[in-house]
Amino acid sequence: MMLVKLGGSVITDKSKKYVFKEKTVRRLAKEIKNSGEKVIVVHGAGSFGHILAKKYGLDKGFINEKQISGVTKVQADVKGLNARVVNSLIDAGISPVSIPPSAVVECRNKKIEKINVDVFKKYLNLGLTPVTFGDVTLDRKLGFCIVSGDLLMLELAKVFKPEKSIFVSNVDGVYMDKKRMDKIHDKIVRNMKRKKTKIPDVTGSMYEKVKIGLKMSKFTKTMIINGNVNNRLCNALKGRKVVGTVIK
Ligand code: IPE
């Protein structure tokens, strides 16, 4: 079994609200199908989540009642995005089942404390492909919080110990001093800097992803690849060598 995260930067235009990159998602769905591999799909929220989550300060947890309408809106928006991803997977010949974190995850202080993995297991055993996504969930300390697709990848990696976990992004991998790294390990990560970008991202871009990837590497082979290049995902799933960064 393999884990695939379709990043928000590949499936949406992160700078413009509600721009779904349908052509790209359809191609990636076909690449998953063509690989013949059994997968769990996680996807990011992109501009369907980050922009309003930031506006309402949802990453801070419950502060005031004004945020509540933001919780509903963001949950509805990411579900809308999820429906589009699910439909693309269906059209590619996959049998997806949507598993919304708002219903199966509970956090404490932004960390996943409880996740109903049985639901994932049972659907997988039936031959369906679970699809989950970055969402707003309950938080036992903060009331609610944002759960990123990356955190869900880590939890699922711990439980399923997949042969491989692939982060599909819009870059060829992790860069340091303008050079793409084939492999990175914890020492390199400690020297990496958090970069500030103008694009709203309440869950923290590449640096946080690499830190999560490092934790995942205990359970699974973890890599970051570019989903905008034809067949990279398919080849990576098939175990062929592809351009990207492996996190060890
Ligand atoms: C963010 O999920 C979830 C919300 C903002 C509601 P991700 O952090 O996984 O999304 P991307 O991949 O960065 O867009």
What is the gist of this entry?
This protein is an alpha/beta fold. The protein has ten helices and 14 strands. The chain has a single domain, classed as Carbamate kinase.
Q: State the CATH architecture.
A: 3-Layer(aba) Sandwich
Please identify the oligomeric state: single chain
Spatial strand sequence of the major β-sheet: 3-6-2-1-9-13-14-12
Structural class: alpha/beta
CATH H-level name... which superfamily?
Answer: Acetylglutamate kinase-like
- Biggest pleated-sheet summary: 8 strands, mixed
> Can you count the helices?
10
Stated plainly, the CATH topology is called Carbamate kinase
Mean pLDDT: 95
Low-confidence stretches: none
Helix content: 40-55%
List cofactors, ions and other ligands.
3-methylbut-3-enyl trihydrogen diphosphate
Overview of the structural elements:
The protein is α/β, with parallel strands linked by helices. The protein has one domain (2-247): 3-Layer(aba) Sandwich (Carbamate kinase), CATH 3.40.1160.10. It is built from ten helices and 14 strands. The strands form three sheets. The chain has an eight-stranded mixed beta sheet, sandwiched between helices. Strands 5-4-7-8 form a four-stranded mixed beta sheet. The protein has a two-stranded antiparallel sheet with strand order 10-11. Helix 2 packs across helix 4 and helix 7 runs parallel beside helix 9. It is globular, with a radius of gyration of 17 Å. The two termini are 19 Å apart. The relative contact order is 0.18. The structure holds 3-methylbut-3-enyl trihydrogen diphosphate. 3-methylbut-3-enyl trihydrogen diphosphate (IPE) is lined by residues 7-8, 44-46, 49-50, 53, 74, 78, 134-136, 146, 148-150, 201-203.
